[in-house]
């Protein structure tokens, strides 16, 4: 670890997390407003993204904006902020996180980031749970989404020639331990089902409520499943078409 960097070295992976005034400020901000489990998750995601950029051919051959990748990965779960005043009452957590990160960079970088880089940051965070879209975006967006997915899959990441070996995985997780991350994922996403249900019906978050209930322990599960059925997008779309027939010839 260099004197100016808050991040440890990762010699097995042969990567170094970039450190500059903006990245260090974002790291401090993330620590102030999220849990240790989330901070460590984000640092693992940064590390996996950097590893994939170096060793996964489609990314290794691209001219990737590393600062944008690091900031996006580092701040991608600001939508889970423990400082609730940062969050909306009506937006998906990914959108909250993207908005928070964009505002942070606009304020902290003092106009040094142009509109394109700001959009990369926003897209990478907003789309990080939607790989079917993210994979068709810019390399930075792809790298962030893959790095985040890699923290859940590790050496089992379904990539051809997956560069995440067991040894590299162990080094990254050893540097940034999970410290209860699995429980936090369940409790956070079930909490979103409970507190902001309208933001979860059309995405993967609702599945946590269906599996773990609204309290993360099975409570309210059956009622939640029924609520999801009532708000199923297929029913809403087809019901809308049926209702519109009254105004059609």
What do you see in this structure?
- This protein is mainly α.
- The protein folds into 2 domains: 21-179, Hypothetical protein af1432; 182-247, no CATH class.
- The protein has 13 helices and no strands.
- The protein has helices at residues 21-33, 36-55, 57-60, 66-75, 93-108, 115-126, 131-134, 139-153, 166-175, 181-195, 205-212, 221-230, 233-244.
- Helix 1 packs parallel to helix 4 and helix 5 (93-108) packs antiparallel against helix 6.
- It is globular, with a radius of gyration of 19 Å.
Strand content: under 5%
Structural class: mainly alpha
Rg, Cα atoms, Å: 19 Å
**Low-confidence parts:** none
State the end-to-end CA separation. Answer: 72 Å
CATH topology of the largest domain: Hypothetical protein af1432
Gross CATH architecture of the largest domain: Orthogonal Bundle
Summarize the amount of helix as a percent range: 55-70%
Number of domains: 2
Q: How are helices and strands ordered from N to C?
A: HHHHHHHHHHHHH
Number of helices: 13
What general form does the structure show?
globular
Tell me the number of strands.
0
Instruction: Specify the CATH class of the largest domain.
Output: Mainly Alpha
Largest sheet: none
Mean pLDDT: 95
Give a brief description:
The chain is mostly helical and 249 residues long. The chain has 13 helices and no strands. This is HD domain-containing protein.
């Amino acid at each position: 670890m260099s004197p100016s960097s808050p991040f440890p070295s990762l010699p097995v992976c042969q990567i170094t997390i970039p450190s500059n005034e903006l990245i260090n400020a974002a790291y401090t901000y993330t620590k102030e407003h999220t849990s240790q489990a989330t901070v460590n998750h984000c640092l693992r995601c940064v590390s996996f993204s950097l590893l994939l950029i170096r060793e996964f051919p489609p990314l290794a051959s691209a001219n990737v904006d590393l600062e944008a990748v690091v900031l996006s990965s580092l701040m991608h779960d600001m939508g889970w902020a423990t400082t609730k005043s940062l969050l909306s009452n009506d937006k998906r957590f990914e959108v909250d996180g993207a908005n928070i990160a964009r505002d942070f960079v606009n304020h902290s970088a003092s106009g040094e980031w142009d509109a394109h880089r700001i959009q990369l940051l926003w897209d990478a965070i907003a789309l990080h749970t939607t790989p079917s879209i993210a994979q068709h975006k810019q390399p930075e967006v792809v790298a962030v989404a893959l790095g985040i997915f890699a923290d859940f899959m590790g050496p089992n990441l379904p990539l051809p020639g997956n560069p995440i070996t067991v040894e590299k995985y162990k080094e990254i997780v050893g540097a940034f331990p999970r410290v209860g991350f699995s429980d936090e994922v369940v409790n956070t996403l079930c909490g979103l089902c409970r507190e902001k249900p309208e933001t979860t019906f059309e995405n993967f978050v609702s599945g946590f409520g269906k599996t773990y209930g609204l309290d993360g322990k099975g409570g309210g599960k059956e009622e939640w499943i029924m609520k999801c059925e009532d708000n199923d997008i297929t029913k809403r779309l087809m019901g809308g078409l049926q209702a519109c027939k009254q105004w059609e010839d």
